Amino acid sequence: MKKELQLSDWLPTTNKEVKIRGWEYLDVILFSGDAYVDHPTFGPAVIGRMLESFGLRVAIVPQPNVNDNLQDFIKLGKPRLFFGVTGGCMDPMISNYNANKKKRDKDAYTPNGDIGFRPDYATTVYSNILKEKWPDTPVLIGGIEASLRRVTHYDYWSDKLMPTILESSKADMLVYGMGEQPLRELIRLLEKGVPFNSINTVNQTAVLLNKEDKIPKNSNWEDIEISSHETCLKDKKQYASNFKIIEQESNKLAARRIFQKVGDKTLMINPPYPTMTEAEIDASFDLPYTRLPHPKYDKRGPIPAFEMIKFSINIHRGCFGGCSFCTISAHQGKFIASRSQESILKEVDTVANMPDFKGYLSDIGGPSANMYQMKGKVQSICDKCVAPSCISPVICSNLDTSHKPLTELYQAVDKHPKVKKSFIGSGIRHDMLVPEFNKNADPKELDDYTEEVMTKHVSGRLKVAPEHTSDPVLKLMRKPSFKYFHKFKERFDKINIKKGLKLQLIPYFISNHPACEVEDMANLAAETKDMGFQLEQVQGFTPTPMTVATVIYYSGYHPYTLKKVNTPITKKEKDEQHRFFFWYKDENKAWIKNTLNKLGRQDLLDVLLPAKTEKWRKNKPKGDAKNTFNDAVPFNQRNSEDKVRFSKRKKRKKKKRR
């Protein structure tokens, strides 16, 4: 029988909890913009547990109050080694604001979804306070906010080009990407007695060197200098050209060290570590997490982000898609670090034995659901690769895209006696399941995986992300042609019929992405309507640091070609593009009609708002609930029940006229 959890099973968050453990001092104190959830998918918990595994005394201060006397920043005193700071599992600006820069009314990483517990630019705010209160204690920043803002970057919310976050935060060191490997080396050096301010050659870290500091030597690294922050402020094209270097070096297995001048200082970004081995990632997930929020939140309400992943299993890190609008590969890397089946099944057993587990796993996935155990067939080819994506514009012939290990993993999970059903909640790369696109894969393996997912791991709806229908826009997005979505839908429909299922296919789309014009959105609306979709899973493009699309949005140049790219910038442009998603809403129809007439696209107008359908709609009787159906869908695309209703109504009209 599992022992009942005690307060001391969590990392301490107060002096009282420190004393319960009998500690007289702390080695490391972590500050986080998130509430403290002791779970392997929450970064602060992972780092805290890992440092604890090294024998260190670690405490965490979650969501410290920055609006009072700043007591939270001094209550635990001064740590022996350093303060660690993260803005949380999401960039705080994404947590706090939507794509229209409006304040969100919920924060998923706060109890009850309450807002106001995380400041804007949290990493910078926390770090500055700590440097003011404890000027002689090193501050180490990490997490996604620090990682994506490690170099000159465009900040959408202030509409400014900002320098490295090391400059604004006054922190002593930055860890980018997933932090286990660099922190292990940092702790090793500190425990050997090396002063913190002398440590500047650890992989996957960045520091800001003063004018008088000597450049550290490392015979194993080549160096490259990018345009200074001041040059970027004056020349958008130079800023864009920087990004190609940053992205390629971030994804290389033998990367160069990057230098950038920032005023009279020099930013030094050391090369990343190689991808974590299976043993390393297993060790991280096997740490003694309680898998629960800290008891201090018991009376404040559930934490939405935790409730979403409470019964889910993360099976890998990284994503080789390299989508132009996505930050996953920029933070986790493009090479996949997969857990062993043994480690995954061990976690499944832990979850299955939780007291409130009802037999349903909400997700077995990762950044993308179907990249588990996928890697290069010949490692030496990957070692030299500089491509930001392994599957765009085509799937690399050296990439092993076998879905067999994943299918077998699902089947092994489902054999657990307490698991009634395991769902796949992570996004599936549908393009990799299309033999016409994934030409090197075994078509039977792809069909087996698709059938496995559709028959056993979906509850009514399968969500995929084609993102757009325009091939030029998709090319810039680093996504495949929309024709492969058509191919996937054919296979989906075939399995649906074969197995007697009634599953829905739900596609995700993005509006106002760089290179997207109003006409592209009109085409998207018409083509998806023609396929029988009434879109609901849609969003507007939000510029976030460290993506190709954001660089284009700010500079107007593609970083790889330095050619001009048109991008919707104004609110009017963005709103107009977004309206095409909702062609079926009455308030949009007149505008769509006028817009398409101006564009001379009567063909699209005939698809979106057919004259006969609109005429019938205006004349339909009010309050006739039996005759209601999706009247924006042309008659030949309606289901049989709607056709019967329509025919009966026509007969009634004829009788009245007689």
Care to describe what's here?
The chain is α/β, with parallel strands linked by helices and 658 residues long. The strands form six sheets. The chain has a nine-stranded mixed beta sheet with strand order 2-1-3-4-7-8-11-10-9, sandwiched between helices. Strand 5 (153-155) and strand 6 form a beta hairpin. Helix 2 packs parallel to helix 7 (180-191), helix 15 packs parallel to helix 16 and helix 19 (518-530) crosses helix 23 (602-608). The model is unreliable at 621-646 (pLDDT under 50).
What brief labels describe this structure?
658 residues; alpha/beta; 3-stranded parallel sheet; 25 helices; 12% strand; globular
Large-scale geometry: globular
DSSP, total strands: 20
- Work out the helix count: 25
Q: What about the largest sheet?
A: 9 strands, mixed
Runs in which pLDDT lies below 50 for 5 or more consecutive residues are 621-646
Question: Cα distance, first to last residue?
Answer: 80 Å
Oligomer: single chain
Give the fraction of residues assigned to helices.
25-40%
- Residue fraction in strands: 5-15%
Cα-based radius of gyration, to the nearest Å: 27 Å
Overall residue-averaged pLDDT value = 92
The computed structural class is alpha/beta
* Widest sheet: strand ordering: 2-1-3-4-7-8-11-10-9
Pfam families: DUF3362, Radical_SAM_N
InterPro entries: Elp3/MiaA/NifB-like_rSAM, Methylthiotransferase_CS, rSAM, rSAM_horseshoe, rSAM_sf, UPF0313, UPF0313_C, UPF0313_N
Family: Belongs to the UPF0313 family.
Cofactor: [4Fe-4S] cluster
